Amino acid sequence: MSFFYHGTFSDEITDKAIDLSDKNIDNISGLSKMRKKVSFLMAECIQNIVRHGEGDNIAKITNQSEMFFTRNINESYFISSANIVDDEKKNFLTQKLDQVNGLDKDGLKELYLDILTNESLSEKGGAGLGIVEMARKSGQKLDFDFQTINDLYSFFYLQIKLKNKNAESNIELPVDDIKNIHRQMDDNGILMLYKGDFSEESVLPMLLVIEENLKKGKDKKTRKRMFHLMVEILQNISIHASKEDGVGKGILLIGKKDDQFIINAGNYIDKNKVKPFKGKLEFIDKLDKEELRDLYRETLIKFVEDHDVDSGLGLVGIARDSANHPDYQFTELNDEKSFFSISVTV
Description:
By secondary structure, the chain is of the alpha+beta class. Helix content is 48%, strand content 25%. Strands 1, 2, 3, 4, 5, 6, 7, 8, 9, 10 and 11 form an eleven-stranded antiparallel sheet that branches.
């Protein structure tokens, strides 16, 4: 899995998710040539949630949230979503998806032109034009299913597959996988998961996705602390992660339990950096909140004067802004690398 998202869906979220995906795909051999198709299909998939989902009524219908996620396995790329629809939309989607899945390339083109020529495109639904375009761009059948919530509403699960024409193996993932992932993520309160490139170009759209969601709920002070923590954690991975072909890779997971946000992050780190990095963390771990604030000011001055990225400013900032002292761990992998993981609460 490379990107999972639970939360508010909007045009802004669509743009940022695509930016994040574009950067990741560029670094995956065999998928970079499909970037335009992936961007288009991601946009259509999220817009499907925006158009057909129940939006602000979700909380009244179910405790589960709508979701979107992407996976890349070998040279196949999967785009999946789950959103709530009423029975009228369920019937429309079933009829349209069954129709497009029964057509070949020429049949899809003919249906596409027919919709453009003969049917009026409503603002919500587009007479199924988006579904036809998904099938045309992917060149694959669209996997879908519904899970009943009550007498009026169901979860609509959709999976789009793209694959490199020269791929040696054909990967198939059943649509039930989406249901299981949805349930597991929801049961564990996971709001967002990202695995991949943590360069500055990737970090920015990730922060903007988080910022967009923080606009709803939580007081201003908590939102500010949460955003600052995210900046520090993402920059920490970007700076200290072991580089592979010049790219630092890692994993970020944001969850919520009771009334607290939980941020987990991890990255590979060169073995020779573990001892000094661990030393800084152990020193910070012994300080109380007032001592952390003083140390942050001192380290900030040093950073401004020397521009030293290894000054430990980010680590001090993380400890200062988290509700408790961060939990961290180093796991030895081989003679060259270890895996560093950190968990903080807000």
